[in-house]
Write a structure and sequence with these properties.
Elements (H helix, E strand, L loop, with lengths): L5 E3 L2 H8 L9 E6 L5 H13 L2 E6 L19 H11 L3 E3 L3 H4 L19 H4 L3 H16 L3 E5 L3 H13 L5 E5 L19 H6 L1 H15 L4 H13 L5 E8 L13 E11 L2 E11 L9
Parallel strand pairs: 1-4, 2-3, 2-5, 3-4, 5-6
Antiparallel strand pairs: 7-8, 8-9
Helix pairs in contact: 6-7, 9-10
Length: 295
Amino acid sequence: MTAGPQVLRTRVELAAALGPHGTTTVRRAVVMTMGALHEGHLALVRTARDHADQVVVTIFVNPLQFGAGEDLDRYPRDLGRDVDLLAAAGADIVFAPEVGEVYPGGPPVVRVSAGVLGERLEGAVRPGHFDGVLTVVLKLLHLVHPDVALFGQKDAQQLMAVRQMVHDLDLDVEIVAVPTVRDHDGVALSSRNAYLDPEQRAAARALSRALAAGRAAAGAGLAAPRIRSAAMDVLAAEPAVVVDYLALVDASTADEVADDHQGPAVLAVAARLGATRLIDNVVLDLRGPAPEEDR
C-alpha cells in the first residue's frame, strides 16, 4: 500500500520536511488550494507529478481574498477527505496551516497589490480579492520554495495576476496553467457547485454552453462583437442565471479586446444562481472577421 502524504500544520514542520533551501537537487512543485478538493484540483496534482520530483499541496482557506458577505465561514472544509484524495493523486506533502500560522501577527499590514489588473472583471465585483490572492501566493511561494507552481485555467484572471506578479517581482518560479476540468454536462468543476440545488445545477450548464457558442463564433471567423453576442444570447435564454459580466479580454491584461482584435483572447463569464456565484472561461484564437462572402 502506498503511504499517504506527510500532513504538516506549521511552518517549522514544513521547513524541516523540505530541508534548507538551495541544498537539494530535487525539483519541487506546489499546488495551492483552499481544500474541498475535486477532480480539477487533482488534475493539478497529477500534472505536477509530470513536472517535478516532489509535489507539495497547500490547503488554506485564505481570509484575505473573501470580501464582506462572502462565504468564508461556510466554505467547505474536510481535511481528512482531502488528504485521502491527495494520497491517491500522488502528493508528497500537504501543508494545511491555520490562519494564525500564515498570518502570525494578524492581518498583514503590507500586502501585494494586483494594480489595475485587480480592478477589472472579478476585481470590480470583489474589490481587494486579487490583492488577497497574491499576498498569500507570495507567502506560500516563500515558504515552499518551489521550482514550478501549477494553477487552473478556470481562474483565468488569477492566473494572469500570478504570472504578472512573478514577472514584475522577479520571482524564480515557473508558472504552469492546467486546462479547466469539466463535469459530464460541461459545467466547470468548482467547490461552490456543492451549494447548487438540482434546478440551479441544471441552469449552470448555460455558462459552458455560452462559452461554447462564443468558441464556435470565433471558429467561424466572426469578430469580437459577434462572439460576445453569441455567448450572451445563450445566457439570456436561461432566466435562473443572473450575469455579473461576460467579457472578451486580452489573455494577459484582462482588458476588453477591440472589435477588430486578432490573436489570443479569453471569453470570461461570471454569474449568480441563487446565492451561489460561478465563473468560467475559454481561451480563444480570434482570426479576424471572415470574408464577407463566407458570413
